[in-house]
Every structure is written in C-alpha cells, then in structure tokens.
Amino acid sequence: MDVTRKQFVKLAAGTVLAAASGSISSLGEEQASPMGRPVKAIVFDAFVLFDARSIAKRLEAVFPGRGMELANLWRIRQFEYTWLRTLGQQYVDFWHVTKDALSYITSNMKLSLSFAQHESLMNAFRELPVWPDVPEALAEFHRRGIRMAFLSDLSAELLDTNLKAAKIRSFFEDHLTTDRVQAYKPSTKAYQMGPDVMGLRKDEIVFAAFGAWDAVGAKWFGYPTVWVNRGNVREEELGVHPDVITPDISGLLKFIGGASM
Question: Are 244 and 254 contacting, i.e. CB atoms less than 8 angstroms apart?
C-alpha cells in the first residue's frame, strides 16, 4: 500500500488529537447494510471498545498541563515505530514499541520519570476502561449469533487483561493480534488473519475501525468497514471510504441489519 511516512503520521496524529478531546458527533448519515450482506463475524480494533483518554489523564497527573500533548506525541511515535518496524521486518510486540516510544518522547523533551511514574504510565495500557455503549452492544451481537474477535496491534496479554477487568472476555474468540504474523496494521498480513483464522470470506467479516487510517487499511484489504469515529475526525483522502461512519457503536449494529439500541 503506497502511503508515505508523512501521510501516515499526519493521519495518525489527527485521530489521536480528536480522540483525546472526547468530542463525539456524526460526520454524516449512516448507511444501510449493503446488498443485504450476511454478516457472520465482526473483528474489532481495540480502541473501538477501550477508551484511551485515560492515558492522557495519567500523563496529566505526572506532567500537569501537558497530558494531552504528551499523549498525542506518545501515540504518534507508537504509530511510527509499528509502521517502520513492519517495513523493516524488525518486529517486536506492542509493549516493547510502547516502551520505546515513551522513552523517546520523554528523552526528546528532556522530561524525567521516576521508576514508579514510568510503570504507572505503561500500565495505563493494562487498565483501559470500556466506552459506555460497549457491554450492551456486545451482548446484542452475541444474542444474534455474530462471532467476535479483536484484530489488533495490542498483544493478547494486554487485551485479556483489559477484557477480564471489564468482565466481557467471554464474548470473544481467540485474539487476532499482529504478534501472530509479525506485522502491524495496515499490512495486509495483519488483515488477512480474519479470513485465515475464522475460516470466513472477507465479505462475511465486518471490520470495526477506530482510527481513520485503519478504516482505510481495512477497505484497501477488502473488508466491509464500519468506522466508529468516536473522536469526530475527518475522513482520510486516500481514495476509499468506509461503508459506514458512526460516532458510536450503534452504527455497527445498524450496518449488520438491526435497529439502534
């Protein structure tokens, strides 16, 4: 996929900035499920379900007045490192990338962290709350017999820790983490895990994206894609469009053929 480093960082930053602000509104009319497509499974990006604004709050506690700024810088560096490591075939897991990104931004900005502060910030990724609409939505998907899994850059350990805390682990099949294929999204190797592991066609699996860039990657791959645009950011100008843009998870339910909750 021909995306320049500058384009990738710009679109990643836009997603993080808006998400950290907590602004939620629709970018347009939700679309109906196309052609009555039978949906058999949903694969989620982690942050469709987990609220990462808690990371900025934890940074704010350590560096008053700079929490959002540092959260944005940290996440941008995570994107850069996952993308560059995939291109360079130098894969390490998400925890390692996250630690390296935190070390970079604090060193680059000449900020000091105690061991306890460093551990607290890293552990924010193990203590992510779910968005308020998540438990009811998952129960409804389960009631309808829709299979669910994560297709995520996060490791299985991080996903399980957060899911167990939220008491929603039972809804999900085995995690499709990028550790399986040693390549981060938007690599096609990452998206290919859905059909390969779940034994379904692409058009039977809906991809639920949090980031605008991830919605683009999923559409390039060929998934029916619902962009849960919780941060109210602009759609990317990369030649493809998600099937649905929705400010919350209710649009995903509508896409698979039901009424909103």
Answer: yes
